[in-house]
Amino acid sequence: MKRYLFVIVMAVLAGCAGTKVTKYTGTPRLLANSTILFLPTHGISDYKSQDLCEAARRLLKDNSQILYLPEEEYNLTRAGMGKEEITKATMLDTGRLAMICKKLQVRYIIGTEISSLRSGGSYGVYSEAELDPYNSTYNMDNESNSASLMFSIYDAQSGSVDSRFSVKTTINPLSIHDDGGGESRVNLTNQMTALTTAYEKGIKLIRKEMVSANK
User: Hey, is 45 helix, strand or coil?
Assistant: First the structure.
């Protein structure tokens, strides 16, 4: 019963999430059934970065082969690359990305970087007066969690980063109104929930824009 209630609550809160995608360069039009290497997400722990890559594997498992750079260190060092060369790989160093693609036989490299993380409160109670936008310092974002990620996609064929886009997810609290005109706000998520949601939205966009090699 408790698990059932938890699922209901999370489903309701998920409905409070909003996501915005901003495209900066190109369109993430990757060829389906290609091998894609993911770099660690910059700005979070190695453990969480690996979790995000596992989400990418799950979402792309039926039409792409997904590799994760830390898991390929052994193969790259055997192929002649130094460990520092591998661990310091960034999306700005296209020469190094080209070398990695050649040694691992991958077509694309995807890098993700956190632009912002915001954590709001989990609970708040406000009177009718406090909710009045004309005479209150109340911030509607007090209990909102948000995360913004930048995705960059390197194509070994062109030798350049052909696509860059950002994904921002904001999870607003569930509002409960009382008879006196006041309001309670509850948010059982956190900034990492927003980050995971933004990351998965970005991966789903990449999947959606994939094209067949026959086209």
Answer: coil
Helix (H) or strand (E) holding 110: strand 108-118
User: What element of type H or E holds 11?
Assistant: helix 2-14
Length of the chain, in residues: 215
The predicted-structure confidence for 82-132, as pLDDT tens digits, reads as follows 999 999 999 999 999 999 999 999 999 999 999 999 887 665 665 555 666
> Residue 123, SS3?
strand
In angstroms, rounded to a whole number, what is the distance separating the alpha carbons of residues 139 and 147? 18
Give the residue from 179, 187, 195 showing the smallest Cα distance to 16. 187
Answer for the pair 53, 38: CB distance below 8 angstroms, yes or no. yes
Distances, alpha carbon 132 to alpha carbons 23, 123, 181, 184, in Å: 36, 19, 10, 14
Rounded distance between C-alpha atoms, residue 46 and residue 57, angstroms: 16
